[in-house]
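Appendix B: a complete holo record

For completeness, this appendix reproduces one full record from the ligand-bound portion of the collection. The bound molecule is flavin mononucleotide. The inputs are the chain sequence and the ligand SMILES; the output is the full three-dimensional arrangement of the complex, encoded as structure tokens. No fields have been trimmed.
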Amino acid sequence: MILYFSGTGNSRFVAQQLATLTSDEATAVSLSVPYSPLTLSPTGRVDCLGIIFPVHAWGMPLALERYIKNTDFSRFNFTYIYTVCTCGDDVGTCATDIRKHLRQKGWILDCMWSVQMPNTYVAFPFFDTDSPELVRMKLERAHSRLHHIAEAINQRKRGLYDVHPGRFPWIKSHVLRPLFNRFLLGDKSARADGTCTHCKTCVNVCPLHNIALNGSGFPEWKGQCTTCLACYHNCPHHSIEFSRFCHRKGQYTFLRAQAKLSSTPSHPR
Ligand SMILES: Cc1cc2nc3c(=O)[nH]c(=O)nc-3n(C[C@H](O)[C@H](O)[C@H](O)COP(=O)(O)O)c2cc1C
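The structure of the chain with flavin mononucleotide bound, as generated:
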């Protein structure tokens, strides 16, 4: 059983690829509170749990952390548990923190991997989407890394924590992350400008069902946001601002990048 959360599609892609390569089934978790019960198709493997997510502020997205804590998995008997996180750059002490977090559920994390994917965080100065060349490079590398990860999963390897912590990992996960979660997480500053055409794309793509159109047809955020930026990146008119720092910065979704990649030949090496 593979459970995943994804804002802009990177982690969905990873989950779907790994499902194919490990003969498993990927299910998107519903993070809207109250949590909907886990429904599984009979084809999903229930001895093995994979959790796939984007790194948010050098850790697991808070909404996913709460989901795992509050969901009752007692009817499953997992004999193998792994996580794969996707990140733009690095993950801090995410691996150690998640192992501790899962231990509170009585779970032992057998393996964890990070996969570098195109960056989606744009709501702070100096953060923007990657250049087209970097997007291409990251996606090409991700494909071969996923084969390597799937092989380890199929062999039920244990004790492998192959993540990229980056520089000053403890400071990132234990000083900057709490500050991020305290001051930058959520939808307090989210708004659509006058270019909004009331198309409802933001409503439809929000994985937390946290957006509705108000009486004037503009999106309103309902306070449950986990800042995945799906609304910002998917808006066809680039009308959404998530903070005053992300005005007209780049937009990225996995599906658009993949389509672009398959329509342009790669550079000769
Ligand atoms: C709120 C937020 C915080 C992020 N924090 C980090 C981070 O700490 N380290 C990192 O390398 N990438 C970070 N990223 C980038 C994402 O982890 C990365 O682009 C991921 O692949 C997005 O996955 P998704 O398309 O499944 O949502 C962040 C993105 C968002 C939206």
